[in-house]
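[stage:ingest] chain + small molecule (magnesium ion)
[stage:ingest] validated
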Amino acid sequence: MSEGQTGNPSAVARADALRARFEALPAGAGSPGPVRLVRAPGRVNLIGEHTDYNQGLVLPAAIDREIWIAFRPWDRPEVELTSAEFGDTRSFSLEGLSPETRGAKSWIDYVAATAWAMREAGLGVRGFRGVMDSTIPIGSGLSSSAALEMASTWALAVPRAPRPEAGAMAAIAQRGENHYVGVNCGIMDQFASAAGRAGHALLIDCRTNQFKTAPMPAGLSLVVCETGSSRRLEVSAYNTRRSECELGVKLIAEREPGVRSLRDVDEAMLDRNRDRLPEVVARRCEHIVLEDARVMDTVAALRDGDLAALGRLFAASHASLRDLYEVSSPELDAMVDIAVAVPGVVASRMTGAGFGGCTVNLVERGAEGALRDAVLAKYQNRTGLKPRVYIVAAVDGAGELQLPA
Ligand code: ADP
Ligand code: MG
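[stage:predict] done
[stage:export] tokens:
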């Protein structure tokens, strides 16, 4: 929860522009009451990839790329929302929402899904009319969808009603995305957007839904490099990886009572059960088991400011995702390759589900420009694709903004 950025001039300018945009719409003009503002950040995962749906550990940070909604509560059980990005207005009724009866697929489904899941969880929701803008690139793996959901939880919530804590709210939004939108995502994205803390990463335990904050070392910047490559294979490969992990758990559990997820498996247990596992399943399991350990090691390295260890851990994670889990791509590999050759780049790896999207980089303060220059100079030559480089900061999680009216 956050009332962050109060007094930040760029936040005030953004709020003024969004409010003005809302007032100019038929929905905004002439209705009484102050315009309210809610925000939710995207996220980048530092390490712990594909571990969330294996009840493992992840280490994302909420970043200063955000979706904002300016809105007024509506006295009807309806939502009407304009996406400034798409120049598109959509609406839906809060009554009779159900995954079975939802209409044509549209971006508003993420809002309707959140309303449906909040209702299912016994939370009150109420209608609003509003407009949203976004600085999160869509479909790049920085979780614009989770940000849209978490911003929606704030706009839909009944005022002064008790609000579940961030992890529980994230689970509700995840359920909406899983069952209503039909995307089989884990809980990390919503959790990071809900619970982020400025200047910190979040160590989330996806078995208990508990989290701890981990401070980012003062001398390091977070840089995200977007490969511009399609995530076309992502959905089918993601679902295959999930079932391979489930098969691994099932086969190991036949001999090891008490194993319910790969979280319950350590390296020694995996080794003594390798003979039971198809070779490809063994490799998937090995990635998950070792990746969980790398998350804990990264938290320690961040705490100790051990830059060499951070570099080794990111490199090991990337290699494991490339060779064992097989979700990297030539473009992601090229982006990491270019980054690690730049002086001042401490650590670089693919982030997100894979097959495209972004890399995450820890960079000594002052070296961000050198990384950007190297990527802009070399990446397009190597891949034919246009990269984007975002220097980001870890920010607070979703909440209502309290800015001067
Ligand atoms: P990611 O979460 O990695 O950005 P997804 O494919 O999961 O990519 O989610 C992207 C979808 O979220 C978009 O196709 C759209 O439906 C919705 N969305 C995200 N940002 C916006 C926006 N600014 N306006 C409307 N819809 C958005
Ligand atoms: Mg998404």
